Amino acid sequence: MAGSADSTDSTDSTDPPESTGSNDPSSVGVSARGARRGLLRRWGEACARRFAVVLIAWVVAVGGLVVLHSAYGGEYSDDFNLPGSQSQDGLDVLQRHDPAAGGYSSQVVVHDGQGSLDRLGPQMASAVSELGKLPHVLAAQNPLETPPPPSGAPDVGPLSTDGRTAYITVRFDVRPNSLGSGYLDGVDVAVRPLRDAGAQVDYGGPLGELARPAPSDGTSELIGFGVAVVVLLVGFGSVLAALVPLVSALVSVVAGLSCLGLLAAALTFATVSPTLATMIGIGVGIDYALFLLTRHRQDLMDGADPVAAAGHAVATSGRAVLVSGATVIVALAGLWVSGVAFIGLLGVAAAVTVLTAVLGALTLVPALLGLIGRRVDRLRVRTPVAETAGGQGAEGDGGLWYRYARRVARRPWWFLAGGVVTLAVLTVPLFSIQLGHIDDGADPTSFTDRRAYDRMTDAFGPGSNGPLTIVVDQSGVPTSDRASVQGDVNRALTDVPGAAYVTPLTPTSDGDVLVGTAYSDSRPQSADTTDLVNRLRDDVLPQAVSGTQAQTYVTGTTAAQVDFLDVVSARLPLIIAVVVSLAFLIILVVFRGLLVALKAAALNVVSIAAAYGVVVAVFQWGWGGPALGVSGTVPIESYVPMMMFAILFGLSMDYEIFLLTRVHEAWLRTGDARAGVAHALAITARVITCAALIMVSVFAAFVISDNVIVKMLGLGLAVSVLIDATVVRLLLVPAVLSLLGGSAWWVPRWLDRVLPHVDTEGEGERAPARAGDADA
């Protein structure tokens, strides 16, 4: 870099390259970008110069948010109900005609290892009475007073044949898991007589989910931060340089989680939301700060003033952070295309910490850099390396990454084939994916819902954990024909494939509705149970009432989960199409190249497909699941692929934009497409490698969570980032760009005229002047 602020040394990748043809921005675009450049530079310099004000503002803001969250923050709960679905319509019918039999059910499982529960008749009656008095409880069923099943029928409860195990069915007018953990205090008081008498009492279903320990991500966060410290120390060689991204990410995540908790007071966020927000927030928070810090340190090495260097970092890399953050948020917003509020709100939860990470990068990071000043490399563990050293050496005769990229350019087909084969092998398990809902049997045995699940399975069979309520609305059937309808339905429900037992349907008190219960011969998460629900809905029940005005429904928690699965499965292709289209449009607008945009969209799809394959192999096939603490094999949670696709699309844009920006700059400056790839890889490889290692470690650390869905997301995100930063960035992207050459950046003139101009890395920004030079 030249010693004057007015220098336009061509080796500075931030200098505006000479370009011709369709890549030239209009004069209006240049003017607009110039105004934005000035604003971002002034903003960064102001934060660095007045670092005390910015830091105090952050402390006050975060402290206030934490206090507000502790006072007014809401609870998290899972709501899989879909308005207009058959399960919800059936529930509505039942609640209108027999409120006590409707609502949302949960089980309190009682086991007496000393003998028959008959000896605890008074305690059982007391517990059932007190449960019935709790707020929002419609009814509580005493298992000792319930008639046993007919002779020859399977033992499906509520009292086991040996009399040692029973379950109290409690029905609520709201979802029990939305009542807050404090509600369990009343439940504990109600069942205390049973526990005092020596019985073991556990909560199943939604009550059990409410009783799960509050998710604690502290260990995962410590592991992620610990690995990040090591990577940053090795990558930058400075303790202070390593601390800046960590402090920025930590503060941003705390602020984001507090905001999310306040939103949870008004909206129903899934229980996995805070963990998901933490994973994403830490990952992008460190990445964004890392990009700014890298640019800032290079300017300091070139002799720039710390304040001016911070302003230049915000004006250049800060613009890339804005584009990347906006891309992630747009991708997460695309989840609303599913039409399912549960999934859309998961996107909102992740977007909250992405937003605070962007704010932290653009305000807190320059303030910290202003506070540190020139001392950023003072506490060294090794000699710091300049960002552009590889690039300068690369255009000469040195640089490991430069030599590697030139080797790729000489044999692009070999490297392309290697990358494609690797991804193809990893993708194979995807073709056997089974979407579903993970039941309580996959939870740790320390959870009360898992203990209740095991008790129910041992005493009544696996299907008892997911009973299906059959509802037949015969209000439109003449009274004289209702007995015939009841008989036809009961006969049709005899020996249904996949059903362990179906209770005879009985009318409600008004005679308008028939109600019964079906038990699968498989556990709730099994594909056989899903098939049973669909068989009852699509074939058995409609055929039984054909020719009448009766309407049939299958409802209950398990049926609602099947509805949710059907909707998500049907809309997943739409989400993928929207996200891929966004990837194509963003790259097209930013880099103005049709083929490079197609390449980016295609590589996103294949790399995420490979990550899906790994998740299927580990969790569904059981290849390593037990080592991760998963009990047996489980289906892939229905919304996990949708979440992974949206999140990973946004995250992959970080590295895509960072790498392609440098490739594009070098190509416009030199006209040599292959040399441009080598130059860009030499400059960006170290930063991308550090950023990817940090994000992989952050995501992978969450596989130690007790929540299987969190394990699934953590592993899937970690594997995908690893694939993206290695196979895609080091094999496929250099090989494809070398094969395409200059045609990668071609765009029709008519399209070039209508596309907006986006300056992602501040190409028009001049580097800050060295200390002592004339002010730019």
From TrEMBL:
Annotated InterPro entries: MMPL_dom (IPR004869), Mycobact_MmpL (IPR050545), SSD (IPR000731)
Membrane topology: Multi-pass membrane protein
Recorded GO CC terms: plasma membrane
Entry annotated with the keyword ATP-binding: no
Positions of region (Disordered): 1-31, 141-160
Coiled-coil region(s): none
Keyword Lyase: no
Family note: Belongs to the resistance-nodulation-cell division (RND) (TC 2.A.6) family. MmpL subfamily.
Protein name per its UniProtKB record: MMPL family transporter
